[in-house]
Amino acid sequence: AQSVTQPDIHITVSEGASLELRCNYSYGATPYLFWYVQSPGQGLQLLLKYFSGDTLVQGIKGFEAEFKRSQSSFNLRKPSVHWSDAAEYFCAVGLQGAQKLVFGQGTRLTINP
Amino acid sequence: NAGVTQTPKFQVLKTGQSMTLQCAQDMNHEYMSWYRQDPGMGLRLIHYSVGAGITDQGEVPNGYNVSRSTTEDFPLRLLSAAPSQTSVYFCASSYNRGSYEQYFGPGTRLTVT
C-alpha cells in the first residue's frame, strides 16, 4: 500500500538557523508530491508541489524541496527560519489517476528565539 | 472569493446524536473531499466527490455519509456519533480531477462525549 512517512514528529530550531524536514514515500511509480503547512487553529496551506521536471522546487515563504527518486524522498528545506514558521508541516503524495492525497503524520516545528 | 468555508467551527455531541458538518466553496471546483485529522495520524480521507451527483469512499468512510447535489456544497453527515469520531474535520476542494492541488477550509473541531 502507498504510504508517506515523516520520521520526525517534533523538531526545534533556533530562529535564523537552517531547517530540513524529512519525507519518504512508498509508491510503485513517481507520485505527485506536496508539502502543506498548518498554522495553529488553521486549515492547511500549500507550500510547494512536484509533478515532474526539475527536482528542486521552490515554494512560498522561502521554502524549497528536493525530489530524490533513488531515496524515495521529498525533503523540505529553508535556509533561515523565522519565528512565524512555527507550525505543523505535512508531506503528501498524490496518487496518479486516483485523485486522492495520502498524508504523512506531520512534523511539528518549534522555533526558539 | 471566500474560498472553502466550514460550519460550525466547534461542536460537542453526545453519543448517538446525528449532525451535519457543512462545507461550501465558491471557486467552481469540481473536486471536493473530507478529511479527519487525529494526533499522530496526519489527515485521512473520509469521502470525496469528483462532481455534482458523484461521491466515493475514502480511507475511513464508516459512520459518515455524504452527498453532492450542487457544485458548491459538500455536507458530511454523522449518522450516530461515537467517541471515536472526536476529531478535527477538514473540507478541501480542487479545480478538477487532474489538479491535485487542494484548498482547505479552516476545520471543524468535533467532540463526542
Comma- or semicolon-separated keywords:
heterodimer; A: 113 residues; mainly beta; six-stranded mixed beta sheet; four-stranded antiparallel beta sheet; 52% strand; B: 113 residues; seven-stranded mixed beta sheet; 11 strands
Explain the overall architecture.
The complex is a heterodimer of chains A (113) and B (113). In chain A, strands 2, 5, 6, 10, 11 and 12 form a 6-stranded mixed β-sheet that branches. In chain A, strands 3-9-8-7 form a 4-stranded antiparallel β-sheet, with no helix packed on it. Chain A has no helices and 12 strands. With 113 residues, chain A is an all-beta fold. The N and C termini of chain A lie far apart (41 Å). In chain B, strands 2, 4, 5, 6, 9, 10 and 11 form a 7-stranded mixed β-sheet that branches. Chain B has a 4-stranded antiparallel β-sheet with strand order 1-3-8-7, with no helix packed on it. Chain B is globular, with a radius of gyration of 13 Å. The termini of chain B are far apart. Classes of the chains: A mainly beta (113), B mainly beta (113). Chains A and B meet through strand 5, strand 6 and strand 11 of A and strand 4, strand 5 and strand 10 of B.
